[in-house]
Amino acid sequence: QVQLVESGGGLVQPGDSLRLSCAASGDTINYYTMGWFRQAPGKEREFLALISWSGANTYYGDSVKGRFTISKDSAKNTVDLQMNSLEPEDTGVYSCAAALSGSVGGNFDLYDYWGQGTEVTVSS
Fold this sequence. Notes:
mainly beta; globular
């Protein structure tokens, strides 16, 4: 099974950019659909982005489309989330997840493995 560790979170100001990274170990990410989710205080977990096992397909949640970009580096076994034009509403704990199925979409219930998360705070 794959283990996932997120990094790159922190405190930023509105309008800033931040890049999160998810490092996988124990297995290659090329066997998985990889996704990013976040959970804000008092809110449900929200789907942000996914990238297919091949890297050929990406899909974004409506709230981040055009601002966030997901990418993968198979050599490093990592999946990154580039976040631009951050807003206070982007504050939350960001987690990456891996799914063995290629048909999971944004349904977090269908992802098999999760990291512990990294916290992002957007505040002036």
